[in-house]
Amino acid sequence: QQPVQSPQAVILREGEDAVINCSSSKALYSVHWYRQKHGEAPVFLMILLKGGEQKGHDKISASFNEKKQQSSLYLTASQLSYSGTYFCGTESADAGGTSYGKLTFGQGTILTVHP
Amino acid sequence: AAGVIQSPRHLIKEKRETATLKCYPISRHDTVYWYQQGPGQDPQFLISFYEKMQSDKGSIPDRFSAQQFSDYHSELNMSSLELGDSALYFCASTPQGGIYGYTGELFFGEGSRLTVL
User: Fold this and answer.
1) B51: which chain A residues are within 8 Å (Cβ-Cβ)?
2) I want to staple B34 with a disulfide (CB 3.0 to 4.6 A). Which of A84, A114, B46, B70 is the partner?
3) Domain holding A16: CATH number?
């Protein structure tokens, strides 16, 4: 079942922060976050494994609440280069963590950063 | 280092024709995934291969088939094309299918855009 992302779209000014949420009705093994610019390939941001964790690099971080089957992506001090569509991709827990790379993506969140 | 190479980048076909897309994974990556992305849609998993064997299957139509060859490149064959097959087809690769070496990152190619008229 497809995870649900919210919000569907976000408009920011440079330097502002944003949070994108990803929620699943199924037990998850992992959550992946990707950013895709129009007409280009998705680019990997990070993966979070079950067990509940938080990860981050630079000004982009994420958390995974295993009990709620929810993940959030945090973008701080946004830059123009952050613009794009953000997808969360999930691997279900019933695959036992063996469905490497078989991701079910959310519908995407369009992030636009203005100067 | 070279990334995932897909060819052709653009393809125009008529309904009921066939098409073949090719994917050359990053060197030493032995696992290949195919995703289909319709306009304004999220990528949909089609099929994956590990060490030349099919490892997972998603929403791939029966009209489509795929395989991975001894040099690890993969081909997606699509027959009896329909208008709804128009999409961006991505190939992605990872090293060493399984927990050994898999970091969770899918390395995507730039995609092959198929237009069915």
Assistant:
1) none
2) B46
3) 2.60.40.10
Beta strand A18-23 with A4-6: parallel, antiparallel or unpaired? Answer: antiparallel
Chain B residue with Cα closest to A36: B42
- Any domain includes A100: no
Extended strands (E) in B5-52: 5-7, 10-13, 19-24, 31-37, 44-50
Q: How far does A77 lie from chain B, in Å, by closest CA? A: 25
Question: What residues in chain A have per-residue pLDDT under 70?
Answer: 51-55, 94-100
Q: Is residue B82 within 8 Å of residue B15, measured between CB atoms?
A: yes
pLDDT in tens, B4-50: 999 999 999 999 999 999 999 998 888 899 999 999 999 999 999 98
A107 CB neighbours in chain B (<8 A) are: 41-42
Instruction: Judge whether B75 and B66 are in contact, CB under 8 Å.
Output: yes
Contact list in B for residue A41 (CB cut-off 8 A) is 90, 108-111
Q: Does residue A71 fall inside a structural domain?
A: yes
Domain B5-116 has CATH 2.60.40.10: yes
Domain count, chain A: 1
